[in-house]
Amino acid sequence: MYTEKLEKIFKEIGSVSMKKYITIIIIFLSVLLLISGCVNNEEASQQKITIAEQYGLAYAPVQLIKELNFLKAADPDLEVEWKQLSNTTSIRESMLAGEVDIAFMAIPPFLIARDKGMGWKIISGLSESPLGLMTNREDINSLADFKTDSKIALPQPGSIQHILLSMAAEREFGEVDRFDEQLLTMSHPDAMNALLAGREVSAHFASPPYLFLESREEGIKKILSGREAFGGDFTFIVGVSTEQFYGEQPQNYSNFLEALGKAIEFIDQKPDEAAEILADNYNLEPSEMRDYLSWSGMKFTSKIKGLDKFIDFMAAESYLEKNSYQYSELVFEENLAGEKAISEEGASQNEE
Amino acid sequence: MKSKYKQRFFWGILLAFIWQLTAVSGIFSELIFPGLDQISIVLFKSLQDGTLIKQIAFSLSVIAQGLFLATIMALLFALTAYFSSTAAGLIDTLTALAHPLPGIALMPLILIWFGSGRMAILIVIIHSVLWPLSLNLSTGFNSIPDIYTLIAKNYRLNKFEFMYKILIPASLPYFISGLKIAWARSWRALISAEMLFGAINSLGGLGWYIFQRRVFFDLPGVFAGIIVIIMIGIVVEDFIFAKLENKTVKKWGA
């Protein structure tokens, strides 16, 4: 009956025979099957862990794991692949495609994808970091001085820099989207070059090391810190992983957890040695590296701070659809951050 | 002509059907492979609240401006090359140098020289259109039959009359096929440039719309943007250029 109908349609179209159409459809379906086959094959490998790395001081413990081979120490058979990806969005997409198991990013981009239904959770906090809105304009001394034609560069909409700027705008002017019309999406190095060149860009919401490099330049000043914008301390970068990886490779997961714990402890206790090891990685002098690692506000810790406040703000401004999450929905049961309920964490946040 | 659209319609429906079947079957997660229902909801919503319309208008206005400027420049190039062999050498060298260069490769330079605004996107478009179009025009001018130029001499036409009455009309098929290439190249260049340059005043065109949807993890939105790009491409290729050709080249039988 069904084929009869199809045949009728084909006859109406005429010219090409039924057989040809069927062949084409079969080819189509088999291509689809092939694609799904490939995806399954990649997921099947057990002895491999893929970690996405990004450039930035806040990721220093991850670089340490790589340099000191902490993962190999835990399990010599484990194959570790490091993937260089340039921005949070592509990392997120690779994780969705099953190509990356573990990645590091700021809390807002994590929440945006979690809210849209992506099956992933936080493994651990990684770092707190000073952030700053840097300007090259003499006549700008506070957010209020920005005219509508002064452009502000930040990594992308929905990034932590964007959310922080919105938080500050909300607090000072009661308008969350006050600056949304004048944002420029630029990577940190591009934004720094543009800021130093003094053209096109009036301000850059920078993270280290760009923040430190810019603050050394004459004529460039900070008008807003991340801490002021947020109204307290917050975790800049967290480690995240997919529920699939957590469920299917528990051994590798805990190996990684252990390695991460070791790396964070290493930086905390032997900053000089860590600076020595990492200097090459960041193309800096060891002494410079040491300064940067111990810069005021730079803190490597597995605690997660400010999660609650990010959720509240982002839900209120409809960056997120859902406005309440259980701690267990966001953080893996086995983690480095400690087992706190999300509200308690918020409470301890306020005391600080 | 009719049967072409019938076929396209049929295949379109069939592909959509397979797409939806795959989406519903759950082979892929909804996040990777959204169904057509989700895509059309987002498409409809964005069209309704005006965000998408604004971006479409922006993209089309930039491309119209770019195409216009590039066409004039290409005409000037080709004409000077036709009348002066020294200029022809220079323009030939410039074209040989710049033609194989994708606009995106110039991105870092353009950023430094022109910033990242509308101007930058315009430069990318002009670059992607100017060279193929002037090449096509030059070929067109040079392949005019000798009789035409002899006729011009007989009638003692001056250079301008020769240009308007003979050179340009006679090379019109080349001009139109050059325009077609120009459109295809500039449309691609536009979308990629918009995706890279970031938004100015949150108005960054269709490429920016897609980028923004991507950043906010909204795959149906990404597909909505892609569908709009396809639709505009089809409309321009099949209706505007087809009409133009029917009215000119085919009618005159050149």
TrEMBL record, chain A:
Keywords: Membrane, Transmembrane, Transmembrane helix. The chain crosses the membrane at residues 21-37. It comes from Halanaerobium kushneri. Residues 75-274 form the SsuA/THI5-like domain. It comes from the Bacteria. This is NitT/TauT family transport system substrate-binding protein. Gene3D superfamilies: Periplasmic binding protein-like II. InterPro entries: SsuA/THI5 (IPR015168). SUPFAM superfamilies: Periplasmic binding protein-like II. Pfam families: NMT1.
TrEMBL record, chain B:
One of its GO terms (cellular component) is plasma membrane. GO terms for biological process: transmembrane transport. InterPro entries: MetI-like, MetI-like_sf. It is found in: Cell membrane. Gene3D superfamilies: MetI-like. The chain crosses the membrane at residues 9-36, 56-82, 94-114, 120-141, 162-183, 189-210, 222-242. Keywords: Cell membrane, Membrane, Transmembrane, Transmembrane helix, Transport. Belongs to the binding-protein-dependent transport system permease family. This is NitT/TauT family transport system permease protein.
